[in-house]
Amino acid sequence: MVRVRFAPSPTGLLHIGNARMAVYNWLFARRHNGIFILRIEDTDIARSEKKHMVQLMDDLHWLGLAWQEGPDAGGQYGPYVQSERLQIYHDICQKFLKEGLAYRCYCTLEELEERRQIAKLTGKPPRYDNRCRNLTDKQIKAFETSGLNFVIRFKVPEELLVFEDLIRGVCQFDLSLFGDFVIMRSDGTPSFHFAVAVDDTMMKITHVIRGEDHLSNTPCHIVLFHALGQKPPQFAHLSLTMGADRTLLSKRHGAFSLSEYRKLGYLPEAILNYMMLLGWAPRDKKEKFRADDIVDTFEIGTMSKAPSVFDQQKLDWLSGQYLREAEIERLVDLAIPYLQAAGFISADEYAIDRTKLKLIVDAVRNNISCMSQIAQETNIFFRDVVVSEKHIEFLTSEITQSVLLSFYNELCKTHVLSSEIFKNILKAVQEETKVNGKGLYLPIRVALTGREHGLEMYNIALILGIDTCKKRIERFLLIRK
Ligand code: GLU
């Protein structure tokens, strides 16, 4: 049975690059009818916060990911939060000490730093020199009585380590360059390497799918798996994602967090689709697809080795596609908070005219890529239109006036509007004024909306209604017939 895990550290908002690792683990589990596990790696006490853990779980749920085991889901290999597993790490560490696989190291930070500097100057690798590995009983006793703090280090075998990565192929590491690494800090918390290897072993993880930035950590994990008497899982190190500035996406790119996209009103299915396109493409090269469409054919080995570049324009394009096909009632629900925040509609839910809102949202959905843009696009329906000096000048020219007047007169003859009637009105204006194309549309659009571009004219007129349209035109008529 395939068992994979996503193991974020709750030190901030989950950015797209990191959430992408969750997506591929989830997809892989679905592809192989396996189990997807969420594990919270919060042993860095200074930087980890509960609120980040709550937020990231909420954001992943929003994205549509579901895990079968995790802090909230439970499971037989829990707890799934590392800070609740300290006793487990402690016990295994003691076992390692007893078996001679690990030892106490009393070197101080200052000593380590000094040796690092010397290694640097003499062109040696900056690894720990394994000095405390072979302390005599007498030396140990002396350190113990002096009350020095100690860490626990793992004895790394000096050998060539080879493993096959599902994406990167054969990887080789010379362990003699590594030095004995810390598995338990002096404050009794486990190191990242130790906690990962212990948990992956105990949670029976079969495949570790994570970012390429962890490739150089993998040898440390593999030697620990061996010490734990466990065959290492298979590894798949995914290439990372860069921002437009060609630096790796990180928490610095605050705007790229899942929470931020959610706040902006992107649909989760669009974000999920876009994330599945970062570093992978389905065989048919289609760009718009849902997880269900590709899950049966997804092969992790076909993922790109090269970094992907986050392309906001492409995401916006994709997001627009999903907005166009989404259930209108769902979009209305999503739109309401933004319209309320803009002060366009009251906070009283009974005061909301859903029929009108539906028309508005339906008209606007073609022109936006996320729901927060709705306020900007729809203010013409809720507020008086402000027309610039330049536009006033344009609207007062002779030819423009003839179009506006003719349009106004046609509106006066009508009591209802439909797409057909609107088309006929424009035809009549065209025949009367002999103006067509842009010369015909632009004066009407500018008078009604104060803008030169935007929604379909017919939609604007229909939503505004005949009376409002007349009023907005009337203000610019210099002569009335
Ligand atoms: N906690 C690590 C991170 O957030 C992930 C470790 C792993 O996947 O092995 O980068």
TrEMBL record:
Enzyme class of the recorded protein, top EC level: ligase
According to the entry, every stretch annotated as the Aminoacyl-tRNA synthetase class I anticodon-binding domain falls at 330-476
- Domain Glutamyl/glutaminyl-tRNA synthetase class Ib catalytic: residue ranges: 1-317
Q: Which Pfam families match?
A: Anticodon_2, tRNA-synt_1c
Describe the reaction catalysed, as an equation: tRNA(Glu) + L-glutamate + ATP = L-glutamyl-tRNA(Glu) + AMP + diphosphate
Intracellular or extracellular location(s): Cytoplasm
Q: Name one GO cellular component term.
A: cytosol
Q: Which InterPro entries match?
A: aa-tRNA-synth_I_cd-bd, aa-tRNA-synth_I_codon-bd_sub2, aa-tRNA-synth_I_CS, aa_tRNA-synth_I_cd-bd_sf, Glu-tRNA-ligase_bac/mito, Glu-tRNA-synth_I_codon-bd_sub1, Glu/Gln-tRNA-synth, Glu/Gln-tRNA-synth_Ib_cat-dom
Enzyme Commission identifier(s): 6.1.1.17
Q: Entry's Gene3D superfamilies?
A: 1.10.10.350, Glutamate-tRNA synthetase, class I, anticodon-binding domain 1, HUPs
Q: Which residues form a coiled coil?
A: none
Annotated HAMAP family: Glu_tRNA_synth_type1
PANTHER family hit by this protein: GLUTAMATE--TRNA LIGASE, GLUTAMATE--TRNA LIGASE, MITOCHONDRIAL-RELATED
Name by which UniProt lists this protein? Glutamate--tRNA ligase
Q: Which organism is it from?
A: Candidatus Brocadia sapporoensis
From the UniProt record, report the name of the gene that encodes this protein.
Answer: gltX
